[in-house]
């Protein structure tokens, strides 16, 4: 173990991993971290084992922006199985009720979808990673226990029907952080009167990564002995913040920001979070103060355009 840690290297950047089905997000992360021989890595938002799709893996200094990606909106394609409800809300669970699926009028489907759009209150499912008195809800659920969960406010920006068959619906979901697609599907099934669960789920976008080029786990593992090939798959650290306005600092301003001091910058935005770029490249994240100065909030310590080391 000590020898393995000594062989690890500094890597900065973001890998857009296409997580395979049947694997936890943490397991996928550990495999990728090992093949990169990286000292530090983390993912931005778990996907259920059943789910596939976009799982950004942040290496090194990129882990400093992972929290902002966690807060970003997400987009999914979900396949809904009508007529069956499961204890987990998805196909990994046990079927607990079966009902006949009526001939659904398109207007009724649209009415049910419309009721789930916008800002809604959603009760987190028992099979989730949230904690109750220090214990994960899914662990309590596996013990056959159910506890009261406070509803949470989430926003469903888009909820559209893409395809329909006798037993399945294909939906596009664009939603805020904290939205449980399984709960949306269960509520939809209840509204339609036949019950439903998630048969398949794929995350297709997250924050600034809209319709991105993803890399499969198999493709990443195939480059295990080619570190330069692996590094070529990485996006720069600030790729996760490209939807933020950029503030360019001259040499003097960059020096003061590095010292933790706020500075005045001509034509800076009036408010909000910004990307800071100095003469040597991306510096980190800043925020506009009430008096208009640009204050450093989280700075990176290395050249985000480089990997390895």
Mean pLDDT, to the nearest integer, reads 90
Number of helices: 9
Radius of gyration: 22 Å
Indicate the proportion of strand residues: 25-35%
Tally of separate domains: 3
> Which homologous superfamily in CATH is the superfamily of the largest domain?
Pseudouridine synthase
Secondary-structure blueprint of this entry?
Blueprint: H1 2-6, E1 13-19, H2 25-36, E2 41-43, E3 52-59, H3 66-70, E4 74-82, E5 84-86, E6 95-98, H4 106-114, E7 118-122, E8 131-132, E9 135-136, H5 137-142, E10 152-164, E11 168-175, H6 181-192, E12 196-206, E13 209-210, E14 215-216, H7 217-221, H8 227-231, E15 246-248, H9 251-258, E16 273-278, E17 281-288, E18 294-299
Parallel strand pairs: 1-14, 3-12, 15-16
Antiparallel strand pairs: 1-3, 2-3, 4-11, 4-12, 5-6, 7-10, 8-9, 10-11, 12-13, 16-17, 17-18
Descriptive overview:
The chain has 309 residues and is of the alpha+beta class. The chain folds into three domains: 2-71 and 209-239, Pseudouridine synthase; 74-206, Pseudouridine synthase (2-Layer Sandwich), CATH 3.30.2350.10; 244-299, Archaeosine Trna-guanine Transglycosylase, Chain: A, domain 4 (Roll), CATH 2.30.130. Helices cover 22% and strands 33% of the residues. The protein has nine helices and 18 strands. The strands form four sheets. Strands 1, 2, 3, 4, 7, 10, 11, 12, 13 and 14 form a ten-stranded mixed β-sheet that branches. Strands 15-16-17-18 form a four-stranded mixed β-sheet, covered by helices on one side. The chain has a two-stranded antiparallel ribbon with strand order 5-6. Strand 17 and strand 18 (294-299) form a beta hairpin. 33% of the residues are buried.
